[in-house]
Design brief:
The chain is of the alpha+beta class. The chain contains 10 helices and 17 strands. The strands form 7 sheets. A 4-stranded mixed sheet has the order 12-13-17-16. Helix 2 runs antiparallel to helix 3, helix 3 runs antiparallel to helix 5 and helix 9 crosses helix 10.
Length: 381
């Protein structure tokens, strides 16, 4: 079944989807099928893994181009368009590893250097925009299989009894089955990929060498990470049992939206409302910055609603760099409401005192618009 997955269908996007569309679709599907939201649902966990595999391929231009042209054949070592060493020069260790990982994830484990390893674990962590800016350490808890503390991972209740060769796979640790055009390789169901069995299995782990438990780890999230970033913790995934290598833990990051700041790569955008008098006369105001400080911003006289002002170096931190982006202020001029009698009189005096030419200078866009309206009707007549 895994061989027939369509990566675009998995993410529910069209084949001409943009990188932004892919990222949005990935985040939506990852949150939808995340194991924490679907506890005990094996189908949801499988779909969550498939979503991550699909995004891993489609977010990379070269891998996506290979997939678009050759489909899953591009990920095999003897893929189409190659001379037997893999498509486009990727070969073994490139796209083929991703396809191999997809099979391993969806069948309960991976193979590394010919040995069975534990399954990778995928979890999602939501952080605030401030935590993404400055970096943070987060404690994460997740369900996993760890080496059995009773038998030490041997799977045997008798520490003196050695393991014997598995009668199903004859020590290979894997079995093969034909599925249509494809030959699918799976971990052996009898020995779970170890290649050996025990005559007196441990009661605590039923001879598998691993037990289900809850782990808590501290994950260091570097400053400047983007929404959808992934952190890999090698060897922190599920135990392979019976001395096999453990899988990896993948932490997928989701950055919560902020009600004031909007991130655009290394830049920050913020909407700042101004009173009519501030915009007309000009002023200096203080605005908050993502690092928690305040910055002085000069508002020029005659600033219009929609004008954009920039504060250099006040934007987001750049990953693995001391550089920072810029902060862009989008001005919104408010028209005064609930005027007192005196305030209304002053505005009326201003309107009456200003001649037509003065009004045109004070509000050039207004004058230009109505001049075009006049020309339109005169031309139509």
């Amino acid at each position: 079944m895994a061989t027939q997955l369509d990566f675009y269908a998995v993410l529910e996007v069209s084949r001409d989807a943009s990188p932004d569309d892919l990222k949005k679709a990935y985040r939506k599907q990852a949150m939808r099928w995340h194991p924490d939201r679907n506890p005990g649902d094996a189908e949801a966990e499988e779909k969550f893994k498939a979503v991550n595999v699909a995004y891993d391929v489609l977010k990379d231009e070269q891998k996506r181009a290979a997939y678009d042209r050759f489909g899953h054949e591009a990920f095999t070592q003897g893929g189409m368009g190659s001379g037997g060493g893999g498509f486009g020069g990727f070969g073994a260790g490139g796209l083929g590893d991703i396809f191999e990982q997809m099979f391993g994830d969806m069948m309960g484990g991976r193979r590394s250097g010919g040995r069975h390893t534990g399954a990778d674990i995928q979890i999602q962590v939501e952080i605030s925009l401030f935590e993404a800016f400055s970096g943070v350490s987060k404690e994460v808890s997740f369900r996993t299989r760890m080496t059995c503390d009773v038998c030490g991972g041997s799977g045997s209740a008798d520490p003196d009894a050695g393991p014997s060769t598995c009668p199903t796979c004859h020590g290979a640790g894997k079995v093969r089955a034909q599925q249509g055009f494809f030959l699918v390789e799976r971990p052996c169901p009898t020995c779970h990929g170890s290649g050996t069995t025990v005559s007196n299995p441990c009661r605590a782990c039923q001879g598998t060498g691993a037990k289900q438990t809850t782990r808590t780890l501290s994950v260091t999230i570097p400053a400047g990470v983007e929404d959808g970033s992934r952190i890999r913790l090698s060897g922190e995934g599920e135990s392979g049992g019976k001395g096999a290598q453990p899988g990896d833990l993948y932490v997928h990051l989701a950055i919560a939206r902020h009600d004031m700041f909007e991130r655009d790569g290394a830049h920050i955008h913020m909407r700042v409302p101004l009173r009519m008098t501030q915009a007309a006369l000009g002023t200096d105001i203080e605005v908050p910055v993502i690092d928690g400080s305040m910055a002085m911003l000069k508002i020029p006289a005659g600033t219009q609603s929609g004008d954009q002002l920039r504060l250099r170096g006040k934007g987001f931190s750049v990953l693995r760099s001391s550089a920072r982006g810029d902060m862009y202020i989008h001005v919104a001029v408010e028209t005064p409401q609930h005027l007192t009698k005196r305030q209304r009189e002053l505005l009326e005096e201003y309107e009456a005192e200003a001649g037509e030419q003065d009004r045109a200078k004070a509000s050039p866009e207004h004058a230009s618009f109505f001049a075009r309206v006049k020309d339109f009707f005169e031309g139509k007549g």
